[in-house]
Amino acid sequence: MKSKKIVLPFVCMFMMVLLSACGGKGEKTGDVPFAEVEKTETENMDKADVSVTENPKEDTGAEKGESGKILIAYFSRVGNTDFADDVDAVTSASLLVKDNRLYGNTQYVATLVQKAAGGDLFLIETKEKYPSDYDETDKQGEKENREKARPELASRVENLDEYSTVFLGFPNWYYDMPMAVYSFLEEHDLSGKTIIPFVTSGGSGFSDAISAMKELEPDADVVEDGFETTHSKVDEVTFDEVKAWVNGLGIEKK
Ligand SMILES: Cc1cc2nc3c(=O)[nH]c(=O)nc-3n(C[C@H](O)[C@H](O)[C@H](O)COP(=O)(O)O)c2cc1C
């Protein structure tokens, strides 16, 4: 009797090894659904410590963008306006020339963020362009803000699931985000992602934009320590400054 008791566990173990060697679907570790991997890894633990993920599809992280890619989505007057070739970029508060290239202020900061953090740039672009005349754009921006308009966007981020971190840049328009950024946030579910805002302005900074962002994306982690600069200082923003801010966020460059 005593020897049977000793032999039985060994027979069971032998059977288990044999079955797993037979393989089939999920034979390579990489093919095993997440729930099963967790179960295997926790087999040797006390029963009370074992937690098996019920729904591997939801919890692998792939859908929430845990592949870790970085998106830099931004709105800027340049890219949303058809400027005449002889546009006066030098005296305009909203335009910047660097290395013979015309930039919008926010667009310029976006390029520095990309250089510092890596990732993909995405211009939040409206279907209808804004007037090339600054005052006309100002009037239109005021009207859109007053009417809580949602300008139609020209495109959307199709592979949103791949991103876990979204830098979101915009100019302050009427103590708020431009309404096109509301369109962007309403059309893109950023739940489970980290949103890192940056703003350029005439001096108002973020105003109430960060709390508006949190309301629109209640299941995202909105970083409060965003980057801000003014249109008169944007020319002096250096890569090192942006890099130091990005480094302080503790995100990995992909
Ligand atoms: C329609 C409109 C509204 C603006 N409202 C504000 C404002 O309320 N507060 C502020 O500080 N700057 C305001 N500005 C200035 C812009 O925020 C600033 O020039 C910004 O750097 C422009 O960025 P961009 O070149 O990327 O478009 C406004 C500009 C426009 C065109």
Describe the overall structure.
It is a single chain. By secondary structure, the protein is of the alpha/beta class. It folds into two domains: 2-59, no CATH class; 69-249, Rossmann fold. It contains eight helices and eight strands, in the order H-H-H-E-E-E-H-E-H-E-H-E-H-E-E-H. Strands 1, 4, 5, 6, 7 and 8 form a six-stranded parallel sheet that branches. The protein has a two-stranded antiparallel ribbon with strand order 2-3. Strand 2 and strand 3 (101-104) form a beta hairpin. Helix 4 (105-117) crosses helix 8. The radius of gyration is 26 Å and the shape is globular. The relative contact order is 0.13. Mean pLDDT is 79; it is low at 15-65. Bound molecules: flavin mononucleotide. Residues 76-77, 93-94, 104-107, 137-138, 141, 171-175, 200-204, 231 line the site of flavin mononucleotide (FMN).
Helix content: 25-40%
For the biggest sheet, the summary is: 6 strands, parallel
> How many strands?
8
Order of helices and strands: HHHEEEHEHEHEHEEH
Number of helices: 8
Briefly note the structural class of the backbone: alpha/beta
CATH architecture of the largest domain: 3-Layer(aba) Sandwich
Instruction: Summarize model confidence as the mean pLDDT.
Output: 79
**What is the percentage of strand-forming residues?**
15-25%
Q: Spans with pLDDT under 50 lasting ≥5 residues? A: 15-65
CATH superfamily (homologous) name of the largest domain: Flavodoxin domain
> Briefly, what CATH class of the largest domain?
Alpha Beta
- From the spread of the alpha carbons, the general shape counts as globular
Q: Report Rg.
A: 26 Å
CATH topology of the largest domain: Rossmann fold
Query: What's the end-to-end separation, in Å?
Result: 62 Å
Distinct small molecules:
flavin mononucleotide
Instruction: Please tell me the total number of domains.
Output: 2
